[in-house]
Structures are given as structure tokens and as C-alpha cells.
Amino acid sequence: MALPSVQGKTAIVTGSGAGINLSFAKLLLSKGCNVVFADLALRPEAKEVVDAHQSGSPRAVFQQTDVTEWSQLERMFEVADKEFGSVDIVCPGAGVYEPAWSNFWVPPGTGTSKDSPTSNRYTAMDINVTHPIRTTQLAIAHFLKHKRSGSIVHIASIAAQLPTILVPLYVASKFAISGFVRSLKQLETSIDPTVPSIRVTAVAPGVVKTPLWLDNPDKLKWVDESKDEWVTPEEVAERMLDLITREDYVGGTVLEVGKNQARTVEVLHDPGPSGPGMTVSNREDARAEVWDKLALEGWGQASKD
């Protein structure tokens, strides 16, 4: 069921130190919703928001959180309970855009990768897939414990519909989130009257003007500012609020968000993204860099140091 209003509710937003998640947290606060900001750190613009909501109603609380650590995810809910009594909205939004330190084209043990060849995991997948799945489990457990309805809104991507060789881990992670969200559709209409209604949805943004692009010159050069249009984080945040509050959306919805446009992505026979804010123009140059990497002698062989 939709939450008719977020006024007086409480949300946990991971990754709220910047980007889409910060915009969503700010929007919730503007609507009277308390917010737990869960992130490794707050950028100055995020700290300013939290500092401005230290007292009164609504309030903001910063909880330093490494989303790859399950105990810290549990701590978010404990803090929300202590500060606000319960949680109504959860956004496991923290994510990375295949950074050099956890990147398919820079394998573990080579180059700039911080993923160890003996750790059996990619940090990018821990952040983009395992963290939102585990957070969703914790949110459902919380709603059941408190016998209250709730909403969980994820951040997928058009990458789940437009796979690219440039960022295979990122594409895989967003395919996973889209499928995961759709799998939980029936939580909103449980056949067991003792189970509260829990809506699980996702936005699938196009090319959004956030630090995931702006702080990464290697990816920013894919954008041709004379041709390509950005989606703003505020546009995405507004659609995330729609997924929580509007009756015409239901659990399992994946909502594509472009520049001044949004549409529900169908499970089968979907036409795919189109229009402004959905692509970058310099993809061919970027693809050439992939082949250059593969041509290097010993690609993928971990350092013996």
C-alpha cells in the first residue's frame, strides 16, 4: 500500500552523504520525514543539511556506516529505533559506478584494484548487490516486528536494460537489483493478514549528474556536453517519493527516470530506454580503452608481490 504522506514518518537512507540519496533525504525532510543519514562520511553539502535538522521536527541523524559490514547495517535500525521509535521507509541507495579500485577491467591483484585475489569477493558487488539485499531483509524484519506497513525503494539503473562492455560489474549489479525488486512484488499484497503490507520498488535512472560521474574523469569523458543531457538527482528523488506515496504504483515496480520523463519498465518485451538523459555519446572511444587493456601482456594476472 502507498504511504499517503511521509509527514511524521522515519526513513533510513544509505549513501545519503551525496548524490541521488542526499537529494532524496533532503526531499523527505522537506516533507516532514525524519531521516537517518547512513554513509561512510558526509560531504559538506550533506553535513549542512544534517546540522540544520538537529532539533525540532523533522530531525536528521548521521550514522557512520560501512554498508559492506552487516553489523553496521543492523546498527542503522537500532539508531532509528532509539532516536525515532521505528522506521517506515528504507532506501538502500549506496552504490558505486565500477571504480578503479573494484573494476572488472582491473582484476583483483592488478593495477589500481583493491580487491584481493584471495578474498573471494568484489567490493563493488558487496556495495551494489549484497548491501541492498541484506538491508531489505533487515527492513522486512523490522516491519514485521513492529507490525507496521513500510516501503523500501532501491536504485537500479537503465544499465539493467542497456548492458555495456564498459562497466560489466555495474551492469550485473543493476540487473540483480531489478530482478530482486520484482521478485518481492507480492509483499505488498500478502495473503496472510498478520503480515503487514510492504512495498518494494526501484528507480532506474539514466545519466544522473552526481559525484559518480563528476568525480570520475575516466567516465566523465564519455559525456559530450554539447549533445548529452543530464538527469538531475532532484528529478530522481521526486520519482522515488512517488513510488512510496502514489497509489498507481505497486510493489515490484521498476521506474525508469530520464530527463523530464519517467515510465514503468516492463518485465517482458520492454522497448528499452530512449530520449534525453539516457545515453552518453563518447562510448566508442571508451570501448577502445577496453581493448587497449586486454592487449596488455599479462592482463588479469595478479601481482606476486
UniProtKB/TrEMBL annotation:
What is this protein's name?
Uncharacterized protein
Q: InterPro entries, from UniProt? A: NAD(P)-bd_dom_sf, SDR_fam
**Pfam families (alphabetical):** adh_short
Superkingdom of this protein's organism: Eukaryota
Residues spanning the membrane? none
Tell me which UniProt keywords the record has, alphabetically: Oxidoreductase
Q: Name the protein family.
A: Belongs to the short-chain dehydrogenases/reductases (SDR) family.
Which Gene3D superfamilies does the record match to this protein? NAD(P)-binding Rossmann-like Domain
